[in-house]
Every structure is written in structure tokens, then in C-alpha cells.
Amino acid sequence: MTQAEIKLCSLLLQEHFGEIVEKIGTYLIRTGPQPLRMIVSDTGLVLDQVKKALCVLIQHNLVTYQLQKRGFVEYEAQCKRVLRILRYPRYIYTAKTLYNDTGELIVEELLLNGKMTMSAVVRKVADRLTETMEDGKTMDYADVSNTFVRLADTHFVQRCPLVPETPESPNALPPPAPTLVINEKDMYVVPRLNLVGKGKRRRSCDEEEEGEPKAKKQKQDGESSEPPPDDGIYWQVNIDRFHQHFRDQGIVSAVANRMDQTSSEIVRTMLRMSEVTTSSSAPYTQPLSSNEIFRSLPAGYNIVKQVLDQYLTLLADDPLEFVGKSGDSGGGMYTVSILYFPTLSPFRPLIYFPLPLRFGSRCARIFRLLLRKKHLEQKQVEDFAMIPAKEAKDMLYKMLSENFVSLQEIPKTPDHAPSRTFYLYTVNVPSSARMLLHRCYKSVANLMERRQYETKENKRLLEKSQRVEAILASMQATGAEEAQLQEIEEMITAPERQQLENLKRNVNKIDASENQVDETIFVLESFIESTVKKP
Questions:
Q1: N or C: at which end does the chain have fewer Cβ atoms within 10 angstroms?
Q2: CATH architecture, domain 79-163+179-195+232-237
Q3: Which stretches are tagged as biased composition: Basic and acidic residues (predicted)?
Q4: pLDDT confidence of 209, banded at 50, 70, 90?
């Protein structure tokens, strides 16, 4: 765990959960698993505050607990899971792209609350969608429920583990910590719920509605206080499934750049057919026959079976091995290579990109040469790259000091005498990827600190703007005249309005930069993971 990762985790926890939760989370990240007594003692917080903070972290899967043999419970922070908070906007946007506004709000609610029952999600989302509709229109619970079922069928949401049902004995003491289990077959099974109703709009006051007395309204609300039919069945976002989708999109893009659009559409179809049946950690998709692929191609995509077989053969024969052939039955059995996807297309531009900006185009030329030739002496680098000896030496030492290249000594004799030793420059690609990943974490932390600084410096102006907007909204609701509204708007002067526009533009740039760096982080993490798993 590097200092950059710890700092970024601390900033994410503080921004989303506040100072107390951030203090507990950062302490667990730095120290590792700790019992409750040690957390209270070392952080100096009140026991009740620590318990509530741990509940919040466990609710969002940021902390896990483990019952030790000696009978006490240890809590451990999940640093990688905390870093995934940075990717929440991308998860929500993906859900919107695939399942429209309803899917977007379902994923957003689950991410905001950590775990929720299906009935609670459906009601909350229906209410939020009704708020955005025109007067007289409402969102039906059944429509939201159908979208939730589609998300579960494609494994974007999954059930949370439950406490197993055991026969209760009057004399048995409850365990210090419950053990949560779930059957893998039940992870995506949606309970049969008869959710009937429509979304409700928020009301500005609790006055009498349609002539009904307030007491009668409260009584009607109290009648629905019985537990929902899915009480105890909680759902959460399946982050690994979203990562699998991002990875599939990267594979399709790589195929389109390497081949053409038709090839990428064929690979997209293969990935879509096996998205649920293939594990996110599997090196290849499940074998698919040529006939199955042909039947599953998008409607209206005019391609005959013979042309499809030719494309599949080209993909299987390509040196980058996008597609592999695993048999001849059914017109040929084909799989898509998943494990090595980061080495195919997205990773290499990422590792090249910092070099011209940091060291110049000649350093990038030397770096590409070392990647291609694997090991070279300094004299060979000068000759192959056609760079003068002095410049080549300076560039190699610069990249060596920044850990972009490494130096390997091969002695001719056991005494390691410099005159009888080969000094070979090489690129340790996994090491370079980890170094770039570390810098990406540091960059995101700097961006977050800059955004906090910009907001803090303009705090007074932001509060004034919010007050003016609230006054305008209330006056418009009461039917105020245009002159009155104009007078309220003039409370913010022209220089202040310009300052607000600059602040909004800067914050938007910072947010966009965070998302772009996170895309780089995803590719680098995928590459490092593939090098670890590579046989």
C-alpha cells in the first residue's frame, strides 16, 4: 500500500462520508486488521461514534470483519474497494447508457446506500422519476421493477450474503459476529414481488390534501408500516460485472482499430453471448460455435455465413490472438481472449504517452526500441536509434532514474569487474505500469485537493448564489412579477457572476480530468492483473 493510495482513500472517504468515517477508514488502511477496542483507543473517538462509522463502512462494503479464534472480532479496510468510489460516475453513466434513466437511478441509489431491498429501490426510483415528469404523469412501480429484473438478469446487481437460518435454542448464546453466506445460484434470483403503485411527488407542506383531515392521512400512512415481502433480501451493485463490461468495450475498440467495424461487431456479439456465462477472471470466454454466432448477430446486419467464417478465420490467425479456435464442431468453436486484452491495444499508448511530454520524442524512440529489442547495450541503443552517444547516455540515465527503464548486469567473470561485464538496458513493463499507476493515484489526489481548494476559496459566493436561487424559486412559485425577480437577480453583481462561471468551468474540468485518469487507472490495473495471472 503506497502513500499515494492511502492519501487518495482518505480524500475519497472524507468527501463522501465525513471526517469521522474518514478517520476510522484511514486508520484501518494504515494499520491493517484491528479489534474494536484498539480502534477506539488509537483514534481517540467515542465508542458510539466508532460503532456508527464501522456500520457505515460495512454497509458500503468498505470494511470487512472476521471472527478470530480467541473470540474477538477484527475489522479490516478494503483499500481497493475504497478506490472504486472514484469510478462511481462511470458505473452510473454505463447503467444510463444500457438501461436509460431508470437503470441509472437504480444503480445510483444502490451506490449511495450500499445495500437496499428491491422494494425500497423501486419506490425511491419511481418517486424520483415522477418528480422530473410533467404534472399529471407518474412512474409506475412495475416499469421500475422490470428494469431492476433486467439488471439482475445481466448480473449488474446481485444479492448480498445473508445470515443462515438455524434452529434457535433457548440456552445458546449468539455468536460475537454473524457469518454471512449465499448460494451462488441465488445471487441473481429476483424475488416475486407484486409491487403495485405509482411514484409520488414531494409536497411542500403536510396540510390537508383533497379535503382529508391530517389525522386521517397519518392513519392511512401508518397502515402500510408492515414489513415488505422482500424484507431481509438486500441487493448491491456488482462492480466486477461493470469492470467486465468496460473490458469488453476495450476489446471491441481494439479489434475495430486493428481490423474493421465488421470484425468488432462479430467480437461484440461473441462477448454479449457469453457475458453472463463467463467469469470476470476467466482467461477466455465460453466456446461458441460459428452457427450460434451467426444466429446471434444483430438484426439487419447483412452478412452471410461464408463471410462470417472468413472473418472468424482472420481473427483466429491474427498474431494478437483476439479470437482463438478451440474445435471444429458446429462450423468451428471460437473463444475471445480476455486475460491478455490490456497488452493488445490500450496499454502501449499509455506507457508511451508520458515519455515525449516528460523527456522528449527521442526518449520515446529509445523506449520503443527497447520494448522491441528487449535487451540492448548503450552502443547498440545509439546505433539503432541514430542518436549521438552523449545524448543517448543522458536520455537513458534520465529514464533509468525515473524507473522507466532498468539496467541488467551480465558479468563475464565472477569478480563483476566493470571491464568484463555487459550492461544491458531493458524495459520492465510490469514495473513501469506500477510506477504509472502510482502517479495516476497521485494525480487524482492532487485534482481532488485542487477542487476542494477552489470550492473553499469561493464558499461565500457559492452560499450567496444558493440563497438567491432559493429566493427566486420561492417567488416564482408564488407568482411574483418580473420586476421583482429582476431585482433579486441583481443581488449578484456582474463580477460575481463572472467569478461563478469561472469556478463552474474549472470544477467541470477537474471532474472530467478525474474521470479520464480513472480510465487510465482501469487499463493499468487490468494490465498488472493480467501479468500476475499470465501462465
A1: C
A2: Orthogonal Bundle (1.10)
A3: 212-222
A4: very low
